Amino acid sequence: MKKHHIVIVAATFRPLPWDANLVDSLPPIEAPGNYKDPDKIRNYIAEAKEKRNASLPSLWLFNQFESLHVRYYGGDHPQRDGDRPTLAIEIESSTPEKWEELPGFLEELCDRLETAEDNNEVVKFVGVAVRDILRHLAFQFGPLGLAPLPYPQIADQRDVIDPIKTMNTDKTKPLQPLYVLQQAGIELPDQYVPGESCRNDSLVAARFYNTLCRKRRQFTLTI
What we know:
The protein has about 220 residues and is α/β, with parallel strands linked by helices. Helix content is about 35%, strand content about 15%.
């Protein structure tokens, strides 16, 4: 059986930085050509701006990390339950000095993942909003050669697994994804809200993987 390498990532983000560069980059909003009444035009533009501005904070490109957790499970013990991460870093808003440790951690992580790839072993990334986090890491650390996953591969549906989005299928769209997770037997933290706590997101990711993604002889993930 091939060795499995699992990386759990979780992050929270700071509020959108509204600076002059962002404002200047936004395209102008215009009312449809058939709008003639000045009041109607003003109302249309105001409502369109409000809707656009409300959507901007969810765009990963404009955000900065507030906290970040990365846990790497090295796949050395495929038949041992309760495997703990062989590499891990936890950076919180209360420990800003730990950001200085992140490049060194990513260098070691990338070395492990490249070795796994050279050996044709399985590498999977799991996490709530995992693609946004990986894209942010790619933009920030890709120029240094320290992105855990190259940007074009982040959209891969088999090796990058988001517990929330994976459960949002055509069959389950009328339902809340968290409800679907619970019905699948995944225990959620009390009053859980995705994206508010790295630890809670990591717990959900690990429980999702252990319940729905792990084959019988593969190790379980322990947070």
